[in-house]
Amino acid sequence: MYKWTQSTxxxxxxxxxxxxxxxxxxxxxxxxTPLPHSNIIHPVGKDDIYDLSYLKDKDPSEVDTTNLPIxxxxxxxxxxxxxxxxxxxxxxxxxxxxxxxxxxxxYQDLLSFPTITMPALMICHGSHVDYAKWTGVxxxxxxxxxxxxxxxxxxxxxxxxxxxxxxxxxxxxxEDVFIAYRVNDETIPLNHGYPVRLVIKGMLxxxxxxxxxxxEVK
Length: 218
Hints:
By secondary structure, the chain is of the alpha+beta class. The chain contains four helices and ten strands, in the order αββαββαββαββββ. The chain is globular and about 50 Å long.
């Protein structure tokens, strides 16, 4: 009978770990919910008035933002891997699933909705903190235009890079939840979610889906 030596067991465990890591590096499918983006870029200039890292372990809904400085766009932290380019003429934000009317909204369609502008604190727990001014359209207006069917209770937000988050509708209908296309009075840069991203005041940044392309109501 073959005897399992310590070195043999160690080799098998190492091989299994390697296979798990390799398989985990593939692109997620739309049905999966990937982990939050981990390739974080912290802009230079720490330990100044824009360094809000002391808040990184706080609940954003409980932070008094009255005296916080607005983070300049070039100081916003970056996560994820943006698409190389976005053809804004062919871009569509699709709203589908448990709705009366499936929507395929162009970028210009989104700009035509009534706008909202507000500062919002984004905390990626234990990692980084930004406090910027965002402009966009309230998500509730888009969902009302689609017409949510009875029984629907959540929506999944899917990005161009297939990152996704699923959130309850009772949260998403709040007036502080919106689809943003501008930050600090300028078009959102590609690195930060162009053409549009989700902004949810009071929730952790992992839910602020960038490069948004689809909302599936369930």
